[in-house]
Amino acid sequence: VQLVESGGGSVEPGGSLRLSCIASGFSSSNYVMRWYRQVDRKEREFVARIERDGEVTGNGDIAKGRFTISRDNAKNTAYLQMNNLKPEDTAIYYCNAYHRGSVTSYWGQGTQVTVSS
Fold first, then answer.
1. What are the DSSP E strand ranges found in the chain?
2. SS3 letters for 84-113?
3. Gap between the Cα atoms of 34 and 11, Å rounded
4. CB atoms within 10 A of CB 34
5. Edge-to-edge, what's the strand order for the sheet holding 17-24?
6. Region of residue 76 (left: phi > 0; alpha: psi -120 to 50; beta: else)
7. Per residue in 76-100, pLDDT tens?
8. pLDDT tens digits, residue range 18-44?
């Protein structure tokens, strides 16, 4: 069972990145897929989630109008499209797969996003 994030990197303010989260060893279509981020040693902060049926919930303080979560169950992959990035978006972004019935949760290793000029 594994979640692998990719797509992070360094970008200037106003730029865009698309993060990917590929699941292996299980079918992510049965899971709620979520993105979190963490700065230094602070608590991980919820960014957005997408339910099995595609319903989306985002952290309005962070994601509204800028971040979009999506999923492709055929590819066992979830995405986070991030536009108009700001320096305060600099963080390690983590993917999480959560199964409501069994309360099973898997985490990826994270991908670094750095926004600076």
1. 2-6, 9-11, 17-24, 32-38, 45-50, 56-58, 67-72, 77-82, 91-99, 104-107, 111-115
2. CCCHHHCEEEEEEEEECCCCEEEECCCEEE
3. 23
4. 23
5. 2-6, 17-24, 77-82, 67-72
6. left
7. 999 999 999 999 999 999 999 999 8
8. 999 999 999 999 999 999 999 998 999
